[in-house]
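Changelog note: in this version the structure field was regenerated for every chain. One regenerated record is shown below for reference.
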Amino acid sequence: MSTPPPTSPTSARQRAFAGFVADETSRTTVTRAARAVGLADVEVTVATLEDTVRLLRQACTPKLLLVDVAGRSDPVADLAELSDVCDEGTNVIALGDVNDVHLFRQLVSCGVQDYLLKPVTVDDVAGTLTRARHAPEAEAKPADIGRLIAVVGTRGGVGATTVAVNIAAVLAREPGRRVALVDFDLFFGNCSLALELEVGRGFREALENPSRIDALFIERAMVRVEENLFVLSAEESLENRVVLDPKPLELLLNHLRRDFTHIVIDLPRFAARTQLSLITAPAAVAIVSDPTLVGMRDTLRLHTFFKKYAAQTDLSVVLNRCGALRGAELGIKDFEQGIEARVSHVIPFDARLFASSMTSAKPVVKLKARSKPCAGLEALAAQLGGPAAAALAVPRWKRWLGMTT
């Protein structure tokens, strides 16, 4: 008779290894093998696969997980279900009773580290555990991961969200790209509002249950705007206590960087300091300000901060809404002298164009391509997008003729 699995998930939490097998003989063999290779705090449980999934759904899965699919009618489907509850970095070893090369290949394609045919010996299991423990982790090279683009406004009203939305729209229109627009302001973010999108609970769930973050979870949490543009945002009630914890955010961004070529983050200035560790190369930071005295002061502070603590990023200063406050604006040279740095891009203000963007819930770059604001936004997107976006700096008529310089 099978022993029921423990009702508490604590037995699997933070373990280096956990095993769930279908019979007592396998339990004894796997336990001896795990101890033989030096795995501490070993616990192997006799349980059905359904009970195994139920238990793991409640806890963090171990680094090494051994499960038994002997006697199952569809082991591939069973392990696909198991993968939904496994945390990032868990290596799965399967035991089974079907000797079939095609099945083995299917299981490996599902992410299974190895497949052992029952009945197993202590040496068989010990060798597999040793190989799994020392298997090199695949590390994404900088060229293979998505580029982060953080847009930070010096204060509310300078148009940082508008800049972020339009940068994402420009980058997303190029074939072969996938762009994620992520709004880090969970309470007052406007990215979804600017595009008239429904806001879901996916972002909050990711922060509260980081163990559930995977490609499928992210796909369900994001809203698709067009073929290559997706948005992740929230609009939490002020009564809710939601914290931007760097750990789940790092896991979330790691997944996004695998699936998207560019991740544009609308980063509130209050989060710039606490989330700085998330902005890793390849990355760019754009500080957006209006040409005012207050904007100059706050740009200086932010620029000094990023230059000191995020030296690995491409740092830009963007003057937005230029011309909106005529007679009360600083000149570009005076602004540059005050911030002790150069202004990278200037975005002129066009009241009618930006008003039309707000009422139509469409980015400015989709409304009037030949306008001065659009030209400035396209040039900014080309710079922030990195080498992959260099072609955006080339005028359209040259690109149509195949000219890239």
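Spot check on this record: The first strand starts at residue 17 and ends at 21. Residues 293-309 form the longest helix (17 residues).
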